[in-house]
Amino acid sequence: MATDIEKLFDLQQIDLKRLRIVKRVKKSLVSVREPIDLIRLRESVGSMSEEQESLKENQTLAESQVKVVKEKIAANQDLLNSGRLTDPKDIAALQSQIAELESTKSAYEERALAALLEFEDKNKQYQPLVERLEERTGEWEELRRCAREEQEGMAAELKELNRERSVRASDMNKDALQIYEELLKRKNGIAVTTITNSSCDACFMSLPTSVATAPRNGSSTYLHCPSCGRMLIQR
Ligand SMILES: [Zn+2]
User: 129 and 165 share a domain?
Assistant: First the structure.
């Protein structure tokens, strides 16, 4: 039949395991936060993508303007060739209009070409960044997948430990359990500790002979470390 302090010591082992798992879960959650370099990379790719889109729009717009002007030129040219205009003034006016349209067309063509060249130039920087982003996102997603699996495993482990703990706690002296729980909160998760070479294993202070050599676990009162106040168990 285990004594109260032995039962508390067993409970302490379970609580230490639970604490370690909780710490590992927290660490795992931190590890799956999106890395800052990936966030920055995504932002760079996003803003470059907007620039590229706007260059494409400029090019498309200029090209459609070229098309409209070309149609006007062709219509004017047809009129000129039709022989319907007989007044030399009208003919001269139409010719001058065609010349003006030709110059407008050249300006639009230059604009379209400039947008295309700038697009292609920036694409040399943009494409490698897109590839890098895909690669880094893939790596990060893999990391997240592993972490999720690990977290699920830890959650299951924790659930089992919680179950075992409540079974053991239900079979325990309520007063002893209360003292234990309070110490656990105040003493950084360690309420019961062992003695090695007449020293407390939690705070490492050497214990007075009366404490270190007290009768083994027999008495109903608990031994406490005079230095850190934790319960002591002689093993
Ligand atoms: Zn101590």
Answer: yes
Ligand 1 geometric centre to CA of 9 (Å): 15
Report CA(230)–ligand 1 centroid distance (Å).
6
23 CA distance to ligand 1 middle (Å):
24
Domain boundary among 170, 203, 224: 170
Q: Which residues pair with 231 in a beta bridge?
A: 192, 224
The yes-or-no verdict on residue 21 having pLDDT over 60 is yes
For residues 143 and 34, is the Cβ–Cβ distance under 8 A?
Answer: no
Same domain, 95 and 162: yes
Strand partners for 224: 231
| Containing structural domain, residue 181 | 4-25+173-233
Q: Report the mean per-residue pLDDT for the chain.
A: 93
Look at residues 120, 140, 170 and tell me which one is the last residue of a structural domain.
170
CA of 168 to the centre of ligand 1 (A): 25
**The pLDDT value given to residue 31:** 84
Residue 88 pLDDT greater than 60, yes or no: yes
Q: What is the pLDDT of residues 166-193, one digit of tens each?
A: 999 999 999 999 999 999 999 999 999 9
